[in-house]
Predict the structure of Pyridoxal phosphate-dependent acyltransferase.
Amino acid sequence: MALSLFSKSKKAIIERAQDDYATKMRLKYKPYYHAMESQSGTRIRLNGRDMIMLSSNDYLGLSFHPKVIEACGGAAKVWGTSTTGARISNGSRSYHVELEEKIAAFLGREACHVSVAGYISCCSAVASFAQKGDLILADKNIHSCLVDATRLSMATVERFSHNNPEDLRAILKGLPHNTPKMLVVEGVYSMEGHICRLPELAQIGEEHGCFTVLDDAHGIGVLGRQGRGTVDHFKLGDQVDLVCGSLSKSLASTGGFVAGSRAMIDYLRTNSRQTLFSAAISPAMAATASASLDLMQSEPQHLERLWKNTKRYREMLKGLGLDIWESETPAVPIVLGSKELVYRFWNALLDQGVFTVMSIAPAVPPGKDLIRTAVSALHSDEDLEKIAAAMAYAVKQM
Ligand SMILES: Cc1ncc(COP(=O)(O)O)c(C=O)c1O
């Protein structure tokens, strides 16, 4: 047998990936990547057991609305499954333009651009505009897509204390006046459920010439008239330059959007690498978002039910003495403070047929390890009673 002249050298990257501690722990305890066998509204089936979903971002519960389902399937029949191309080249269709005009009108903006993911849209809202030499002022708790975008932009990043206008003001005082600046905040913080102190933050941004980007992934559908989001909630005008967000929460689809003045959206379409080099959103997902947007305006009962459920759910958790990090919205964390406690609590809920998601440091600040829950307009009174019993049981296991 002929021997190879060259011995095979080890691949350091493969070894590092194989030794990765986080992956080993994930495979051992299996807290993530659960593939549910079926779903109908808030009810899911996991490992042969029926459970209540308590961590979805389907705030308005539209993902099972008959009109949304019909729009989704109908679009594929008319347009096929995908445009298989980027918007700038062969991927633009009239339904993209119609959806963009609808979102822009809903948010009171001149123009909008949609893409295949909220991650991509939010990333492009920051990375297409900020450049090397600029200064980005970002809340300490912004979503990872915005963090990644600040890195991509090559701008210098200053992080201010979470939702703290005084800290933003103090940081801005020490910065050069003439350097181009961007302020990056979220409307509703997805883990904490906090509403952004937007009036004060945007005002400070204005005083210092900041271009303000608001990621309202969790504000759209939840806050403001008919779910128009955080800007509408505070009745603010154009102090916010760009609003970006996701179609995968209240809009029951997948995809993302950036809305702003026509000039800014035209600039984004020329300069956003996320837009230029990625295929367009599919017909089915665009039609889904479009139908959801119509329903948000024609069926107010979903938003009403969402807030009724949110109030009841928050009171239930507070009554059990749980720390909900002062959440003000349907995204409600249960802060337990260590990964061991989080794991036990999460397991106890699972045992009682309630599905939630664990979030541990570094995904959350140290000492804030939590169970991320979210209530939906679709949760029935019976669901909420079952959830209350499961929560009481989990508290007793601590
Ligand atoms: C605040 C925020 N921005 C952006 C995104 C990304 O949205 P998508 O899941 O549509 O990519 C998310 C999703 O978790 C989010 O919570």
About this structure: The domain at 64-298 is CATH 3.40.640.10 (Aspartate Aminotransferase; domain 2).
